[in-house]
């Protein structure tokens, strides 16, 4: 069984998936959010869960640096609650502090252009969220 990692933003959702053994995370896609029909976001994720035999969805929880949960974190929690109504698998929240910053630094160090970074940053953040969860689960 696999795990799906999500970096949920206001405009996009970065998506990553684990290998069958649950050891490594790979970037899968970036979904463009539909502001007029949020239900489409959930339909796309349900399709990914079903296509890839996913048993756990890991959603990044953006916390403030002091550990409190602000508006972004509340939006992620609400997204997780709604997603739980659409899928039968386990949903976990994972602290995603600084994952986007780390993903950006990684892409800069790999000399990826600003234009290309913008296209893959959310997917990379999802990879980092999911890999953090997988590493923690493995210990």
TrEMBL record:
Transmembrane segments: none annotated. The keyword Cytoplasm applies. GO terms for cellular component: cytosol. This is Putative pre-16S rRNA nuclease. It is found in: Cytoplasm. Belongs to the YqgF HJR family. NCBIfam families: RNAse_H_YqgF (TIGR00250). The gene is yrrK. Its main location: cytoplasm. PANTHER family: POLYNUCLEOTIDYL TRANSFERASE, RIBONUCLEASE H-LIKE SUPERFAMILY PROTEIN. Keywords: Cytoplasm, Hydrolase, Nuclease, Ribosome biogenesis. One of its GO terms (biological process) is rRNA 5'-end processing. The keyword Zinc does not apply. SMART domains: YqgFc. It comes from the Bacteria. Residues 1-103 form the YqgF/RNase H-like domain. Its EC number is 3.1.-.-.
């Amino acid at each position: 069984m696999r795990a799906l990692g999500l970096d949920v933003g206001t405009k996009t959702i970065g998506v990553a998936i684990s290998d069958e053994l649950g050891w490594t995370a790979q970037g899968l896609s970036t979904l463009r959010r539909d502001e007029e029909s949020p239900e489409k976001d959930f339909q796309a994720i349900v399709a990914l869960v079903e296509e890839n035999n996913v048993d756990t969805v890991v959603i990044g929880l953006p916390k403030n640096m002091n550990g409190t949960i602000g508006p972004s974190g509340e939006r992620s929690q609400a997204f997780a609650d709604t997603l739980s109504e659409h899928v039968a698998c386990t949903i976990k929240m994972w602290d995603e502090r600084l994952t986007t910053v780390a993903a950006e630094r990684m892409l800069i160090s790999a000399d990826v252009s600003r234009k290309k970074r913008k296209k893959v940053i959310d997917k990379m953040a999802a990879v980092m969220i999911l890999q953090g969860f997988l590493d923690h689960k493995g210990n």
